């Protein structure tokens, strides 16, 4: 007699404005995607979608930048930036290899779970049972196709050596708990300044593909860039200060720009009064007329010129 199958009733859908899932079981033509990729906090939406598309392709499929740009509406710049994000997160690895005929090609390896030691755990050996015991009845399980990974995941790196005891080298440094510096604010955020700052931030990705910002990020950084423009900073100066010498890989573009806007803010230009205080003053001695010969000479006091003065000592 088979084991009785107990099926739990389906859970009620939550009421409200949240998402409601209507799931249908796939039996063919599907790809298994982990939540670590679908809900990745550090990848852009383009990178997540591109990783899902690459994992759904068969082994040997062409995934060059031009081929992907022909397949999707995104530009080659955005696709190249998404591929770099996947490389930095471990979902993709690209290398240049030389074939037997001498031609150099790009080899792309896709990882469905970066850092995993193996695709699946090895099955445990079953304990030997006595011949006199009847074999237990196991109900047949429904057949579900499992996709086979085309590339083995990367092996797990060896564990790092243990740090030295704190008694010898002192306690380990603690993470920074101080809040970040506030974003600079302009004295008057006029519509002209707001439009110019938003256009400058949106244009950064033309000069550095890593600086792809969302509309929410641009809206939050606009007051800081407006403070730069209000202090007569040229747009090229602001662009060079924000987009030069970017770290590789760049995981959080908005946080980096917020730090540079705050830390590199130039002072206001000095006015005419401040510059007047720096310039040296020239002392002018007024002209006087000699009371005796009416000759002009420079002196702070009226009287006689040098030739008419009798109190000066004569040279022997």
Largest sheet: 2 strands, antiparallel
Oligomeric assembly? single chain
Mean model confidence by pLDDT: 78
Shape: elongated
How many helix segments? 11
- What is the CATH architecture assignment of the domain at 35-110? Orthogonal Bundle
Description:
The chain has 316 residues and is mainly alpha-helical. Among the domains are: 35-110, Arc Repressor Mutant, subunit A; 191-263, no CATH class; 281-307, no CATH class. It contains eleven helices and four strands, in the order ααααββαααααααββ. The strands form two sheets. A two-stranded antiparallel ribbon has the order 1-2. Strands 3-4 form a two-stranded antiparallel ribbon. The longest helix is centred in the C-terminal third of the chain and has 16 residues, at 215-230. The radius of gyration is 38 Å and the shape is elongated.
For this entry, give a set of tags:
316 residues, mainly alpha, Arc Repressor Mutant, subunit A, two-stranded antiparallel sheet, two-stranded antiparallel ribbon, 4 strands, 32% helix, 6% strand
């Amino acid at each position: 007699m088979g084991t009785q199958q107990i099926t739990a009733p389906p859970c009620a859908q939550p009421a409200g404005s949240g998402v409601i899932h209507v799931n249908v079981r796939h039996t063919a033509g599907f790809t298994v995607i982990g939540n670590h990729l679908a809900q990745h906090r550090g990848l852009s939406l383009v990178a997540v979608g591109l990783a899902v598309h690459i994992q759904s392709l068969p082994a040997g499929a062409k995934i060059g930048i031009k081929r992907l740009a022909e397949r999707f509406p995104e530009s080659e710049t955005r696709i190249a930036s998404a591929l770099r994000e996947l490389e930095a997160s471990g979902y993709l690895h690209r290398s240049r290899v030389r074939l037997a005929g001498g031609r150099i090609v790009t080899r792309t390896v896709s990882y469905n779970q970066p850092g995993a030691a193996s695709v699946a755990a090895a099955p445990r050996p079953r304990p030997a049972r006595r011949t006199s015991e009847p074999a237990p009845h196991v109900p047949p399980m429904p057949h579900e196709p499992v996709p086979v990974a085309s590339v083995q995941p990367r092996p797990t790196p060896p564990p790092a050596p243990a740090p030295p005891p704190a008694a010898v080298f002192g306690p380990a440094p603690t993470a920074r708990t101080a809040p970040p510096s506030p974003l600079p604010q302009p004295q008057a955020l006029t519509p002209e300044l707001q439009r110019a700052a938003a256009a400058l931030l949106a244009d950064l990705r033309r000069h550095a593909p890593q600086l792809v910002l969302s509309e929410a990020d641009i809206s939050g950084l606009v007051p800081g860039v407006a403070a730069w423009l209000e202090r007569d900073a040229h747009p090229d100066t602001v662009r060079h200060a924000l987009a030069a010498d970017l770290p590789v890989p760049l995981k959080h573009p908005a946080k980096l720009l917020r730090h540079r806007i705050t830390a590199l803010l130039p002072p206001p230009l000095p006015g005419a009064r401040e510059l007047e205080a720096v310039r040296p003053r020239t002392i002018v001695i007024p002209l006087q007329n000699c009371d005796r010969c009416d000759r002009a000479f420079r002196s702070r006091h009226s009287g006689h010129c040098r030739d008419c003065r009798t109190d000066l000592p004569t040279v022997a």
